[in-house]
Write a structure and sequence with these properties.
The chain is 22% helix and 13% strand. The longest helix has 15 residues, at 21-35. It has one domain. Strand 1 and strand 2 (12-14) form a beta hairpin. It has one helix at 21-35; strands at 3-5, 12-14, 40-42. With 69 residues, it is of the alpha+beta class. Strands 2-1-3 form a three-stranded antiparallel β-sheet, covered by helices on one side. Residues 48-57 have a biased composition (Low complexity). Residues 39-69 are annotated as: Disordered.
Length: 69
Amino acid sequence: MTTAYCAVCGWSHETGPETTRSDLNRAMIDHHVETGHTPIETDEATPRAKPATAAAEPDVEWTPVEREF
């Protein structure tokens, strides 16, 4: 069984008796389009994702840049 999950929001989807690999790919694309998050694919039965609360803090620091147009 292949599982796809999102480390940002906790979304997940897996293949099973009534879902195909194509269904999983479509679900991953739809999630990316709707949220901008990139799903992670794994063959593990239980994916090891960071809790969704941990994603609230960015891994890198950044400073916004103001530009005049």
